[in-house]
Amino acid sequence: MPPNLTGYYRFVSQENMDNYLRALDINVVLRKLVCLLKPDKEIIHTGEHMVIRTITSLRDYVMDFDVGVQFEEDLGPVDGRKCQTTVSWEGDQLVCEQLGEKRNRGWRHWLEGDRLHLRMTAEDEVCVQVFQKVK
């Protein structure tokens, strides 16, 4: 049975965000701004339904989905694209595949103790973020 990811998580660290954003064709000014942000995550996990909020001082991004069900994701606030997204479990990892203009786009979340890890990919770039559970 997969873990329940419900909780509020504070930003701890990130690696390679600038190159990840460059792979998504984000302009240099916005890349620099995003690299300065320290987002929090709030996850509500009820059975096969999940809501993942990424919270920043600029804007929030909300993913509301059912695990295993493909949906059209509007990534306009991120990079202006839409993609066909499916989120599923691979063991204890929540894995997202985002099919669209960019090859190898997606992410995976997993827990190690009270730390939530996020590995995002686009093209050949990988960005890793770590968050600490606070409630």
UniProtKB/TrEMBL annotation:
InterPro entries: Calycin (IPR012674), Fatty_acid-bd (IPR000463), ILBP (IPR031259). This is RET5 protein. Coiled coil: none annotated. Signal peptide: none annotated. Gene3D superfamilies: 2.40.128.20. GO terms for molecular function: lipid binding. Belongs to the calycin superfamily. Fatty-acid binding protein (FABP) family. It comes from the Eukaryota. Monomer. It comes from Machaerirhynchus nigripectus.
